[in-house]
Write a structure and sequence with these properties.
The chain has 242 residues and is an alpha/beta fold. Helices cover 34% and strands 26% of the residues. Strand 6, helix 6 and strand 7 form a beta-alpha-beta unit. Helix 7 crosses helix 8. It starts with a strand and ends with a helix.
């Protein structure tokens, strides 16, 4: 494995249930992620995939275990864009930079990235004027502009139509290749997982553990619909059904 940028050891997390009990969601996860890798996490609905991302990002405190690596250089893209309705496209994209106090050339950097992502004519628009795909591009741009070492993606393509989803994935792969990003992706779409990722972590039911790590041994760039890719999807489906 290349240089490791994120290591999780015996990671646990729980939520309060009632006045005195807690629900154990993460039951001890161990995994390492290499620089430049795209690691996808799959499992049944409610198994704790999003909780794991929330713990990695610092949105939820772990109840045990350790996280080593780039926690100070992470950004997260949620399933919904959560854009601020009173801010323009440009101002929404620069919001993360403003929160970090990095405002030097922020507008110029954001304008260049948004233009690359097909939003150059919409910088002054407000969220209510955008399609869902355009909103999610702003969401992704906002995260990428802070130049994270690790990008956490919580089903960012789930609410998009097929054409928009695939276009956004191509944008992501292009920027991933240029920026030396490390990506941890949660998705229910095995087609997307196989197309995008280098390895796939299969998660168990709660309390969640990492059952298996599977390599996606396909050369890049990949082409959808090829026999090799479809065979990888079928093999992954079989593993999840066990």
């Amino acid at each position: 494995m290349s240089e490791v940028v994120l290591t999780v050891r015996d990671l646990r997390a729980s939520y309060p249930v009632g006045a005195s009990e807690r629900l154990e969601v993460l039951g001890g996860i161990d995994v390492s992620v290499a620089r430049g890798e795209i690691l996808a996490l799959v499992g049944t609905s409610g198994c704790g995939k999003t909780t794991l991302l929330h713990v990695l990002s610092g949105l939820h405190a772990p109840s045990g275990g350790t996280i080593e690596g780039s926690r100070d250089s992470m950004a997260m893209v949620f399933q919904r864009p959560h854009l601020l309705p009173w801010r323009t496209v440009l101002d929404n994209a620069t919001f993360g930079l403003e929160c970090r106090g990095d405002v030097t050339d922020a507008n110029a950097k954001a304008s260049a990235l948004l233009s690359r992502m097909g939003l150059g004519d919409h910088l002054a628009d407000y969220p209510h004027q955008l399609s869902e795909g355009m909103k999610q591009r702003v969401n992704l741009a906002r995260a990428l502009l802070v130049e994270p070492e690790v990008l956490l993606l919580d089903e960012p393509f789930a609410a998009l139509d097929v054409r928009t989803r695939r276009g956004l994935q191509e944008d992501l792969l292009e920027l991933w290749g240029e920026q030396d990003l490390t990506i941890v992706l949660v998705s229910h779409s095995l087609d997307d997982v196989v197309y995008l990722s280098d390895r796939v972590g299969i998660l168990s039911e709660k309390p969640t553990r990492l059952q298996e790590l599977t390599e996606i041994d396909l050369p890049r760039p990949r082409k959808r619909g090829t026999l090799a890719l479809l065979e990888c999807v079928a093999a992954l489906e079989a593993k999840l059904s066990l």
